[in-house]
Structure formats: structure tokens, C-alpha cells
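Exercise 7b. C-alpha cells:
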């Protein structure tokens, strides 16, 4: 799931920055550049990003689609943890980040429906 975390970060950074480099991601995520380099290599193999050696990283359409899905799950989970369960923000963030990689679309939909029903009461 770390690949998805990196992909999600690249997606979010691409919304704010024109050029993204391994150094930028490492600084933002507080991890070693070697970890990012390995992940980027796998993302290139999977068609999620393009990367020229020592150059910029560009997210592909396939990568954006996958990153959007992961980020959507993250937002829904975090919102549920904060608004429905009343968890502290730091716990909600950590748990959402961990669960987003494993939760099914069906469960996410059920959480959204429950959240909506509870909000109406």
C-alpha cells in the first residue's frame, strides 16, 4: 500500500506544482529518497507515472484515476471517523490512510449512506 500512498501524494502535489521530483516527495512525506525511487520505479512499471532519470515525475491518466479512487476513500473514511465517531484528527488521518488500501467500494458506499442517515437525524 505504500505505492498507493506515494501515488496519492504525487496526485495531490500535481494539483499544486508544475514539476515534481523525487526530492520533493521525500521532503513532503518525510521519507528517504531511496524509498521514493523504488516506488516510482514500480509506478512506472504499472503505468501510473512517467519519470525520466533524475527528472520530473508526471502522473498518467491511469495513475490519476487510481490516485483519485484512493484519495476518495481516504476522504470518506477520515470524514466518517471525525464526524460520526468523533475521533481526534490525528487518529482519523492515520486510520484513514491505513484502511483506504483495503476497504471495498461496497463498504465505502455503506459508510457514506450511514453517514448521511445519521447526519439527517
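Sequence design result:
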Amino acid at each position: 500500500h505504500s505505492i498507493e500512498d506515494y501515488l496519492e501524494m504525487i496526485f495531490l502535489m500535481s494539483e499544486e506544482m508544475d514539476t515534481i521530483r523525487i526530492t520533493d516527495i521525500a521532503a513532503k512525506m518525510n521519507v528517504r529518497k531511496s524509498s521514493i525511487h523504488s516506488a516510482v520505479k514500480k509506478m512506472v512499471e504499472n503505468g501510473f507515472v512517467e519519470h525520466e532519470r533524475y527528472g520530473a515525475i508526471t502522473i498518467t491518466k491511469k495513475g490519476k484515476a487510481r490516485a483519485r479512487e484512493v484519495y476518495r476513500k481516504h476522504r470518506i473514511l477520515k470524514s466518517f471517523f471525525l464526524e460520526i465517531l468523533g475521533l481526534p484528527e490525528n487518529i482519523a488521518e492515520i486510520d484513514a490512510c491505513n484502511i483506504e488500501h483495503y476497504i471495498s467500494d461496497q463498504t465505502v458506499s455503506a459508510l457514506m449512506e450511514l453517514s448521511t442517515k445519521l447526519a439527517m437525524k
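Instructor comment: The mean pLDDT is 93. DSSP finds six helices and two strands in the chain.
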